[in-house]
Every structure is written in C-alpha cells, then in structure tokens.
Amino acid sequence: MSTATTPPPDADRKGTADLTDKYLPDPVDKVCDRQLQVVTPNLFRDFGGKLRFSGQASTVRCYENNPLVRKALEEPGRGRVLVVDGGASLRCALLGDMLADNGVKNGWSGIIVNGCIRDSADIAKMPLGVKALGTHPLKSSKRDPGQRDVPVSFGGVTVAPGDWVYADGDGILVSKEELTL
Predict the structure, then answer these.
(1) Its family (predicted)?
(2) How far apart are CA 95 and CA 118, in angstroms?
(3) End-to-end CA gap in the chain
(4) What's the farthest any 2 CA atoms get from each other in the chain?
C-alpha cells in the first residue's frame, strides 16, 4: 500500500488544461509522454458533485464485482483518488450511493470507475468527484474480490498505486510525480 499525503487545500484548483500546457507543451513530443499521461478523451462522464479533483491513486481491479471497492472506501482516503478498473463492463454498477457516501465520510477526493455506477442522482449531490463510463441500475456480484493496489490500464494509460491523478471536465491526467502550476 502506498503512503499517500494529504493534498494541499488548493490541489483541486489545478485544471487539466493548465497542467497539460505546462507539462505537455508539444503534444507530439513523446519525451513528455513519460511524465504525463492523458486518458483517451470522452470516455468518462462526470457524476459526482465535485467536478475537479486530484490526489494520489489507490487502485482496484475487478470485473462485475465490488467487494474491494467497498473495502477501499471504508478506509481513510487521505485525499486520494480510487481508480477502479472494471474491465469497461456496462452490465452492472460497481459503485452506488452507499459506497460513494463511504468515500465522502472517509476523506476520498474522488473515484474513477472504468465501468458503471448507479444512484447517479444521489451521487451528484455529494462533495466527491466521480467519473465513470455510464450508469446501470443493476448492482454487481460479490463473488470474486478482484485485486487491490496493482497497476491498472484503460483509456490509453496505466495507473499505478501512488501515481498522481488530476481530473476535471476537460479530462483525466496521470503522473508519476505531483504536478505544480
């Protein structure tokens, strides 16, 4: 498990457009790509009440089941972002209002789900960043726990535990180091 630090109070003011301007000035310069990864645009929709969020990543890999998502969100978030690779399944939800509420109560900055969520109207009222591929009313199974704190890949990027994640309405960025403006 990574040792995450609590982000500074202005951490969520770091917009993805400003960060890419600074850290990826020439989009075709592959040297910059090693420092900053950009998730494929328009894959994820915003569902949380907090549209801009950032923090160090904690990861879960699971497919149509969410026991490790629940376990992670029951732990202190310390301003981290939970990145859930659900294999891009659109057949059930990996996050609902009760788990999202755990995230709020335990200090998580945001949750990114490569899959679906449910209870989207309630999640939209929460002070939590939530991005997902879409919604589905069906809850997930509880049979296979999945894996925790492993590198996950989707949308053209790989997120490792402890990486820094920056998300807003313009996109999602991943960096090995904390970025400053």
Answers:
(1) Belongs to the class II aldolase/RraA-like family.
(2) 6
(3) 28
(4) 46
Give pLDDT, residue 118. 99
CA distance 131 to 115: 9
Separation of alpha carbons 61 and 160, rounded Å: 11
116: tokens are 């679906």
Q: Which residues belong to the annotated binding site for Mg(2+)? A: 119
Mapping DSSP onto H, E and C, the string for 11-78 reads HHHCCHHHHHHHHCCCCCCHHHHCCEEECCCCCCEECCCCCCEEEEEEEEECCCECHHHHHHHCCCCC
Instruction: Give the global pTM.
Output: 0.90
Tell me the CB-side half-sphere exposure of residue 8, using CA atoms within 13 A: 8
| Contact status, residue 44 vs residue 112, Cβ threshold 8 Å | yes
Q: What is the pLDDT of residues 38-60, one digit of tens each?
A: 999 999 999 999 999 999 999 99
C-alpha pair distances (Å), 39 with each of 102, 105, 127: 26, 28, 23
Binding-site residues, in ranges, read: 96-99, 118-119
Third-level CATH fold of 11-175: Glucose Oxidase; domain 1 (3.50.30)
Residue numbers belonging to the annotated binding site for substrate: 96-99, 118
